[in-house]
Model the fold of this input.
Amino acid sequence: MLADLGLFYCAFFWGVSFVSMKILVGIYPACWILFLRFSAGAALVYLFFHKRVNKSIAHDFKSGAILGLLLFLAIATQTVGLKYIGGGRSAFISAIYVLQVPFFVWAIKKIFPGWITLGAAALCVLGMYLLTGDEMSGTFNRGDFLTLICATTFAVQVILIEKYTRGCDPITLSFAEFVTLALLAFVSSLLFETRPELINVESLPELLFTIILCTFGCYMIQICAQKFVKPARATIIMSLESVFGLISGVIFLGEPVSFRSGLGCVLIFVAVLAAELEPFIKARS
Done:
């Protein structure tokens, strides 16, 4: 239950961070934001947990570096894909990882995820389709392809987190993930973006919020929580990010919400509830 609450925390703050990110992307290039977020996140992990990081073995750092590489690829392909497709279409295709994870686990481990999990995952994707609006018309293009790569990469990363946390220290995994992603973002920023102002004072509150709560807190909690939560269940809970993102947009930015979007939120909540009740249903049956 504590691990589930940790993933709820991640979904909530990732969703709320959409407001902060909308402000930040108007000031900094995308890769520079990633560099600031994850380099500062790595510094915070080392500040509070340097004894555990120093005692870790090379295998922990290697596994964390793989997670960082996959997370960077997921974010990068989604960002580039947004140049060719709308935000709603991107959000829906990205959410397909919720449906991919249980099938990937089934294919790799030969363990059937259960009809409740599959049903909840399908319901979650349907909810995302309704939530993201009517942007799914048109032919399949390179933006769709890149975003599908994003979804698949993130699905693989979620599955590997569950695998690595069984034999590695989750704090060290987080530290190595942050460092790897920060380095990749920094190199990409130098190669593909104009150099921005290092710190903009006006954006400091949003930047600190994103670093402390949404990066240092969320990504480290995700890795720690997934040690105790199966990947399929974890993705369904984390899909609430989109719901919280919609709610925060309505509250803080005054964005309109349609009946269709509201229905999508309800379906995602039902999917999460089904995933939460699955152990009790199985135990009772």
